[in-house]
Amino acid sequence: MQFRERKWQKVSFDLTPLVDIVFLLLIFFMLTSSFVEVKPGVKVNLPQASAPNIGEKNDVTVSIDINNTLYFNNKVISPKDLYYKIAKVAKANPNVIVIVEADKNVTHGKVVRVMDLIRKAGAKKIAIATRPPKT
Description:
By secondary structure, the chain is an alpha/beta fold.
């Protein structure tokens, strides 16, 4: 009986498609990410957090300074007027994000009352602004 000799073939993986997919995913996540920069205006000492802030240009900012003064987009406002402003903005754009910038020394109760007011006014998305930790 005569056996044929097997010819061994060298097998290799082509990594080019894998690298292409990784770069496409990297580009996708870079383009879909958005960050909020703290804008100058109301002097608020934000608490630190390691997670980045998110936001868009058409979002509104509600600030609470150390003296418990309310600001709507850097303008002093009363709680009653804040309710009507948020209701108007939320009616025009249901996906608006209301960013709450509260000084870290403001009481928790005050921040919760303002967030409750924002929620009652019709805003569905509320974000709390923080600053990155010191390295």
